[in-house]
Write a structure and sequence with these properties.
Elements lengths: L1 E5 L13 H15 L4 E5 L3 E3 L9 H10 L4 H4 L4 E3 H14 L5 E2 L1 H6 L1
Parallel strand pairs: 1-2, 2-5, 3-4
Length: 112
Protein backbone atom coordinates (compact mmCIF):
# COMPACT_ATOMS: atom_id res chain seq x y z
CA UNK A 1 0.00 0.00 0.00
CA UNK A 2 1.16 3.52 -0.81
CA UNK A 3 0.39 6.17 1.82
CA UNK A 4 0.06 9.88 1.01
CA UNK A 5 -0.06 12.37 3.87
CA UNK A 6 -0.91 16.03 3.33
CA UNK A 7 1.26 17.95 5.74
CA UNK A 8 2.22 21.57 5.14
CA UNK A 9 4.95 23.95 4.13
CA UNK A 10 7.43 24.68 6.92
CA UNK A 11 6.92 21.28 8.55
CA UNK A 12 9.86 20.54 10.84
CA UNK A 13 11.31 17.08 10.19
CA UNK A 14 13.90 17.60 12.92
CA UNK A 15 11.07 17.86 15.50
CA UNK A 16 13.10 20.52 17.34
CA UNK A 17 11.82 23.80 15.92
CA UNK A 18 10.05 26.55 17.82
CA UNK A 19 6.61 26.11 16.29
CA UNK A 20 4.58 23.33 17.86
CA UNK A 21 2.39 22.57 14.82
CA UNK A 22 5.50 22.20 12.64
CA UNK A 23 7.12 19.82 15.16
CA UNK A 24 3.94 17.72 15.42
CA UNK A 25 3.59 17.48 11.65
CA UNK A 26 7.29 16.60 11.40
CA UNK A 27 6.89 13.88 14.03
CA UNK A 28 3.87 12.52 12.15
CA UNK A 29 5.77 12.47 8.85
CA UNK A 30 8.74 10.72 10.44
CA UNK A 31 6.49 8.10 12.04
CA UNK A 32 4.70 7.44 8.74
CA UNK A 33 8.00 7.06 6.89
CA UNK A 34 9.05 4.39 9.40
CA UNK A 35 5.93 2.28 8.85
CA UNK A 36 6.18 -0.70 6.47
CA UNK A 37 4.25 0.79 3.56
CA UNK A 38 5.29 -0.03 0.02
CA UNK A 39 5.88 3.75 -0.22
CA UNK A 40 4.95 6.86 1.77
CA UNK A 41 4.87 10.41 0.45
CA UNK A 42 4.54 13.63 2.38
CA UNK A 43 2.84 16.44 0.47
CA UNK A 44 3.81 19.88 1.81
CA UNK A 45 1.68 22.40 -0.04
CA UNK A 46 1.99 26.06 0.78
CA UNK A 47 -0.99 28.19 -0.17
CA UNK A 48 -3.72 26.11 -1.81
CA UNK A 49 -5.95 27.96 -4.26
CA UNK A 50 -9.42 26.37 -4.32
CA UNK A 51 -10.97 25.72 -7.73
CA UNK A 52 -14.27 24.51 -9.17
CA UNK A 53 -16.52 26.12 -6.58
CA UNK A 54 -14.72 24.78 -3.52
CA UNK A 55 -15.37 27.11 -0.60
CA UNK A 56 -13.68 27.32 2.78
CA UNK A 57 -15.77 26.91 5.90
CA UNK A 58 -13.52 29.51 7.55
CA UNK A 59 -14.89 32.96 6.67
CA UNK A 60 -11.51 34.69 6.82
CA UNK A 61 -9.93 32.17 4.46
CA UNK A 62 -12.84 32.47 2.05
CA UNK A 63 -12.51 36.26 2.09
CA UNK A 64 -8.80 35.95 1.26
CA UNK A 65 -9.56 33.47 -1.54
CA UNK A 66 -12.18 35.82 -2.98
CA UNK A 67 -9.75 38.75 -2.92
CA UNK A 68 -6.84 36.98 -4.58
CA UNK A 69 -8.75 34.75 -7.03
CA UNK A 70 -8.51 37.24 -9.91
CA UNK A 71 -4.74 37.58 -9.49
CA UNK A 72 -3.91 34.02 -10.64
CA UNK A 73 -0.92 33.93 -8.32
CA UNK A 74 -0.26 30.24 -8.93
CA UNK A 75 1.43 30.98 -12.26
CA UNK A 76 3.55 33.73 -10.71
CA UNK A 77 4.56 31.92 -7.51
CA UNK A 78 4.75 28.17 -8.28
CA UNK A 79 7.23 27.65 -5.41
CA UNK A 80 4.54 28.57 -2.89
CA UNK A 81 1.10 28.13 -4.45
CA UNK A 82 -0.77 25.15 -5.83
CA UNK A 83 -4.43 24.40 -6.51
CA UNK A 84 -6.86 21.84 -5.19
CA UNK A 85 -6.94 20.27 -8.65
CA UNK A 86 -3.15 20.00 -8.91
CA UNK A 87 -2.87 18.39 -5.49
CA UNK A 88 -5.48 15.79 -6.42
CA UNK A 89 -3.83 15.01 -9.75
CA UNK A 90 -0.38 14.84 -8.13
CA UNK A 91 -1.65 12.44 -5.47
CA UNK A 92 -3.06 10.13 -8.12
CA UNK A 93 0.15 10.27 -10.16
CA UNK A 94 2.33 9.51 -7.12
CA UNK A 95 0.07 6.66 -6.00
CA UNK A 96 0.20 5.11 -9.48
CA UNK A 97 3.81 5.78 -10.50
CA UNK A 98 5.77 6.78 -7.40
CA UNK A 99 8.11 9.76 -7.21
CA UNK A 100 11.85 10.05 -6.58
CA UNK A 101 11.36 12.18 -3.45
CA UNK A 102 9.32 11.23 -0.37
CA UNK A 103 8.68 14.86 0.62
CA UNK A 104 7.01 16.95 -2.07
CA UNK A 105 6.86 20.74 -1.99
CA UNK A 106 4.54 22.93 -4.11
CA UNK A 107 6.98 22.88 -7.05
CA UNK A 108 6.96 19.07 -7.08
CA UNK A 109 3.18 19.01 -6.77
CA UNK A 110 2.77 21.48 -9.65
CA UNK A 111 5.32 19.59 -11.78
CA UNK A 112 3.34 16.37 -11.46
Amino acid sequence: MTFIYVSGASTDSTEKGRTMWARVKGRTENALLRLPFKAAYMFRPGFIQPLHGIRSKTRLYQLIYNLIAPLTLKDRLPKYITTTEQIGRAMLAVARNGYPKTILDPEDINRL
